[in-house]
Amino acid sequence: MITLMRAERAWSYALDLKQFANTEPRKQSHLVAKLKKAVIYAEELEETCISLKCDASTQLEAKAYSHYMRGMVHFERGNWNKCLVSFTSAQKIYSKLADAVDDGSIYREKCEEMTPNVQYCLYNIQSSGNIDTSEVGEDLLKELDGVIASRANAPTQAACELKWEGKCISITNDEIKIELAQLKDKIQQAKDVGTSTDKRLELYDEAVGGCRDVAQIIRKADKLESAETLTDYFAFLRITCTIDRFLLMARQVSDKLKGVVETRPGTKMARPEDLVRLYDIILQNYADLKGIVSIEREGEFYKGIDGNTLFYRALRCFYIAECHLGQSNWINAIVLYDKCKEHVSEALASTANNMDVQGELNTLSKQIYSQRCSAHASAFLHSQEEAEELEDMKPAQKNRLLKDCLDEERVDVLNEGI
Questions:
Q1: What whole-number distance in Å separates Cα of residue 213 and Cα of residue 97?
Q2: Positive or negative CA dihedral for 139, 141, 147, 150?
Q3: Tally of CA atoms within 13 A in the half-sphere of 345 that contains its CB
Q4: 191: helix, coil or strand?
Q5: 319, 334, 164, 173: which is closest to 235 by C-alpha?
Q6: pLDDT digits (tens, 9 = 90+) for 258-305
Q7: pLDDT of 294-341, one tens digit each?
Q8: Which stretches of 78-196 are DSSP H helices?
Q9: Which position among 23, 37, 58, 275 has the lowest Cβ density within 10 Å, counted as fewest Cβ atoms?
């Protein structure tokens, strides 16, 4: 790895000097010297891969890298024949490696990168087909074919088996396997109750972003097995992480409303309206979850989606009622509490096997009863106060003479609208 970094450093330094080489001859000499140093490190890397007995594809990739560096030196020095040999040798290896690995897009891009240099060499030497490319060697080409054959005969040796919704998904793409391992680690950390809430929210955000990145990798990958099922699986992961994230936010707001957690100075006060918005997003994500094709319609998980939807719909209705209660709209609040009670009854019937949800629904039912009684009492007191005000006004209107009220402007509530 250190040898590779040294080669890359010398090569990038040479490219930086290239922009000044046309105007300053000393820069051109410095550029060639840096490229020569890159060739030395590239050859050292090739020898190291052979001595460590790395796999065939790694050794061949190091050989192609060495050919590419030599081609860059010959290109700058104007040795067009040698340059053409080096670049075409590298292209042959890279094109073969592209067929030997699962995701060969990187090697194909490298081949395309060298194409303009090859064409420029052909233009300068005015080639007629007598270019000597025997440096690659028949043994090398046979070795490359052996790599392709070994990959074809044993495609599942490095595969990662993933079981989901009764399906066994084989993942052979190394990039997807790495992303999946990182995602599982982040999700596991996010679910750890001992972690701070802010850190858990950050981990959920990273997991959701990781799922989107994997979806792009799947779209770009060539000849990927079970691509549709894999896409559905990572969509499932993304939506469930989003739901868990917003549930964590809802729990945080709920604790602030109940006074369990103090609101920090400079932060926004928690309101029931915030919970209504959060539960709206959660319900939308559950609707998206039902749209994933690979989830079995008769499975327990799919049935659980309906139960959770009813539960969070009841919570949303409860906090809408709380909003009306806070605005002294007692009649609207009472109607919404009754509707919420209906949602709770439906959710209890749908989640009979989920004891955790059952316990939360029973707690919510008690809160509905308590808050409905409070709204009913507030509405009754308000109506009594209005009646008393009217009664207080009636004697004054009956007993006072008109001449005593000439300086006052008063609206006759009793005869209003007549």
A1: 25
A2: negative
A3: 6
A4: coil
A5: 164
A6: 877 777 676 778 888 999 999 999 999 999 998 888 888 888 888 889
A7: 888 888 888 889 889 999 999 999 999 999 988 888 889 999 999 999
A8: 80-100, 105-125, 138-153, 174-190
A9: 23
Residue appearing with tokens 């890279």: 94
- CB within 8 A of 199, min separation 6: which ones? none
Q: Is 155 helix (H, G, I), strand (E, B) or coil?
A: coil
Contacts of 325 (CB under 8 A, 6+ apart): 333, 371, 374, 375, 378
Distance, in Å, from the CA atom of 229 to the CA atom of 221, rounded to the nearest integer, reads 14
Dist CA 217 CA 222 (whole Å): 10
List the one residue out of 386, 62, 220, 263 whose CA is nearest residue 70: 62
Calpha distance 183→203 (Å, rounded): 9
The token pair that represents 142 in the structure block: 């046979």
144-165 b/e (C-beta count within 10 Å ≥ 16 → b): beebeeebeeeeeeebbebeeb
Structure tokens at 252: 């945080």
